[in-house]
Design goal:
By secondary structure, the protein is an alpha+beta fold. 39% of the residues lie in helices and 12% in strands. It is built from 4 helices and 6 strands, in the order ββββαββααα.
Length: 140
Amino acid sequence: MLKNLLLINGALRILVLSETHPGSVHDKRIADTTPYPLPAGSQRLQDVGFQALTLDGVDIIQPTKKPRGQELTRAPRASNRKISRRRVRIEHVNSRVKRCRRLKETIRVWKAGIRAMVMAIGCALHNFRVRLTPSWAPLV
């Protein structure tokens, strides 16, 4: 199993592709080794896997967890709904990258860098599609 992290902007273009990590590596550990070129004042939408990751001058948007044995009130539920609408768009980007069939199958070429290059090609094809297809509305 191979793992990469993607940094996607509001226009749904892939800005950063992390290094390819073999095996089961936690997302937070990969994020710690990947430099993020986010300017101060920007926002980063993240899930619970990145809970301890903070960047200076960057606002973090993360869903509110339900307290143990209790329910969320209306305001956090509405906020979580807004966040999930944005996250669905990001998951669509992930699925479009993996539309390249070679990324879904086992890559049996053992030469160094081939697997990472295939993922980079999939990301480049996604960015090419986004640029040519105006139907992909940016995140709000």
